[in-house]
Every structure is written in structure tokens, then in C-alpha cells.
Amino acid sequence: MAGTASPGLVWVLVEYPGAWPPNGFEGLDLDAGTKALVISAARTANARILLVRRPGPRRLGARQRHGPASWAVLRHQSSGAYRQLWGAWELDQDLAGIVSALASPGEIGLPPVVLVCAHGQHDACCAVRGRPVGRALSERWPELVWECSHIGGDRFAANAVVAPDGVYYGGLDAASSVTTFEDHLTDRIRSEYLRGYTDLLPPQQAAVAAVLERFGPAGRHDYLVTETVREGDHWRIHITGKPPHPAHIEVELQARRTPVRQLTCRAPTEGSVIVYEPTSIRRT
Question: Is 3.40.50.2000 the CATH classification of the domain at 10-184?
């Protein structure tokens, strides 16, 4: 599972309590011009658009929205000074505010958002496993937690991403999700359910997860990847740590392709993926 976080530094959230089509925002029945503007701006900013809703009982109907809904632009910065900009929409055209928000630096100091994939129309496993996790987390942190559309890695459901922190978790259930996010929200990231950091390449993500497993929990920015060397299927990654963590660590990984199998509930054919297995972790 380590090394499978989808890359990204910017997220666009659009609250939509009604049914989500398989392709998410692009499939919504919205004003075509406004939707095209938002999609174009998001692509220019390399932003991912996610539909969100609060966990809880589903209301029937395609739209079923009473009063304004929220939208947000969340931006990850390597310094840790994450930025967010929130707005509201009632008419489709109100979503055009996202375009200017993508060009704005946003506000710092706001709490992170916990997004739990529950996109059943994309893959049934995400809904079956994701919704109980969303409910459990929302009972603890009702203002932080949203269900969201597809974030990648359906085979690891239940999946969650913390934004704009840019941290992916997978294989969660109701109990493990609460303990995982108790640690995360106090800046103690553990390796057990970690898929990776969205600002790193897959082998770098796997290397950081291996370091966390070996040396224990650490803050989001306590470890920094400072060198990455690839030789065929072999990777050597140097990581520096802030005190009290080890100052210099070298991780070696071997990339391999998994056997062909059914990867997700809805996959039409079998497939395989590349995984990165640590072969050496040492202080230098």
C-alpha cells in the first residue's frame, strides 16, 4: 500500500449532496459554461476536483440541496503553511468563484479537511467500506470530515486523504480510522495505514513509510527527501530528519510488478501494479 498516494498539491471541493455520477464533477448536470470554466481552471492549476458531502443518511433525488452549499480550494505548500479559500454556491454560476480562488493564495491557519472516499458509483467497495469510516470520524470531528468522490486506489478502501496536508491513508475501518486521525491531528503520522504523501513520487512515499515503520511516528515535515537515485528497478533514497529523529537515513527499494489479479470491485479486467519493497534502511 505504501507508495500509492495520488500526486497533487491543490484540491477543489464542491459540496453536492445528491447522487454522484461515476466521473464525479464532470458528470454533473450543471450549467455547461460554468462547468467548463471550473474544469479548465483546475487543469491549469493541476488541481483535483472532488465532490463532497457530510456523512450521514443519504437523501434521494439528483440534487436535493436546501440552501447554499460550500466549495473550497485547498493548497499544499512544502513549508507547511497550507492555504484554504472557502465559498458558497446556490446557482450553478456561483461556482465560477472557484476560478478566481485558484488564482488566490488563500488563508493560512485553518484546520485540515478529512476526506473519506464513499463514491459507490465509481466502485462499490468505496461506499461499503468508506461510509462507516466517514460516520465514525464525523462523530468525533463533525466540522472536519466529509465524504468525497473518487481519490484513487479503490483496492485499498476505505481510503481517506487529509487536505491540504496531502496525506493518504488506506485499509481503514471505523476503529482504526479514529486512532489514525487522532495521531494525525496531533502531527504524529504512523506507517500502518499510510499510503503516502501527495508531494512525493511513489518510491519516495514508500521510503518515508519505511522510515516511519522503522523509527516510529513523526510529523508531516519531520522527514525530507534530499536525494533520489534510480538504477533500473532499484531505488536509493536519502532522507534527512529533524531532531529527535535520525538525521540521515538511506533507504533502498526494489520495484516489482504484482501478479495479475482483480484489483477493484468494479474492474472489468484483471491487472497488476508496481510496488516498492524496502530492502535496506540504515542511518548514514
Answer: no
